[in-house]
Amino acid sequence: MLRDITLGQYYQVDSVIHRLDPRVKLGTTILFIISLFVFDGVGGYAAAALFLALVIRLSNVPFRFMIKGMKSIVFLLSITVVFNLFLTPGEPMFRLWKLTVTQEGVRLAVLLSIRLGFLIIGSSVMTLTTTPNQLTDGLEKMLKPLNKLKVPVHEIAMMMSIALRFIPILMEETDKIMKAQLARCADFESGNLIKKAKSLVPLLVPLFISAFRRANDLAMAMEARCYRGGEHRTKMKPLQYEKRDYIAYLIVLCYLVAGVILGKLLPVLLGTVLA
For a pLDDT cut of 70, what percent of the chain falls above it? Predict the structure, then answer.
């Protein structure tokens, strides 16, 4: 299960998406996530699905590898669906014991499931096609105007990039520790909830120790290389927009317009056809 987490990993392959400016990918991902919460209808989500499919196709990242990250949120997705099915007021459809499933609950559960799935896959596309160094440079460049407000932009970008890069490292470390504990007859599955929580202690303690050790080693390495933050630092490869980056912005704009139009017109068209 831990190996299935793709967020934070980089998939090295040559593609149009890989060659885009990191600022384009960051901005596009943010706009895509916002659109998922703004769009509220079949038309908007259909536009989001087509846009996401196009990006995945252009990224040359295998779709099977990309959807592996969905396995890690199955439990969260199940909780979301159950709560929305039974706790959303509206017109009843049927009853299960003392719980009532409503039409509004089914609709909200489906939309939230799609929204959460698209959000995870869309974020994974960005990390799979962008190296941590590119993410740092792109985020720092986007937030550069905040330097005038004395905001430590470079340090913030560096921390976020390191945190994102450490996700797959910590997941791999957790997998190794779990296998070592299982080889020593540790049991993480049986028992009630309290017993399962207690069984995680032998897993969490060495994981925290390993994480602090890695953080300390990283800090010492940065200090040994005279790292002093973003002040007076230069870039070996300064970021510059190219023609493909402007085309990418245009495609994103078309997606947003199409999502808004389809979200408003498709229900009207469906209502007219059904009538």
Answer: 89
Q: Which of helix, strand or coil describes residue 202?
A: helix
Name, in order, each residue with C-beta under 8 angstroms of 189's C-beta and a sequence gap of 6 or more. 196
Q: How far is CA 161 from the centre of its chain?
A: 14
Strand residues in the chain grouped as ranges (E): 92-96, 99-102
pLDDT per residue as tens digits for the range 81-94 = 777 777 777 777 77
Report the alpha-carbon distance of residue 173 to residue 177 in Å, rounded.
Answer: 6
Query: Hey, what's the torsion of the CAs at 147, 34, 122, 40, to 10 degrees?
Result: 180
- Structural contact between residues 142 and 160, judged by C-beta atoms closer than 8 angstroms: no
Tokens of 22: 């990191």
In angstroms, how far is CA 37 from the centroid of its own chain? 14
User: What whole-number distance in Å separates Cα of residue 126 and Cα of residue 132?
Assistant: 11
How far CA 261 is from CA of 40, 100, 201, 275, in Å, comes to 12, 34, 52, 21
**pLDDT score of 243:** 92
Please return the burial class of 19, using the count of CB atoms within 10 Å of its CB with bins 0-12, 13-18 and 19+. Answer: exposed
pTM exceeds 0.85, yes or no: no
pLDDT-based confidence at residue 148 (cuts at 50, 70, 90): confident
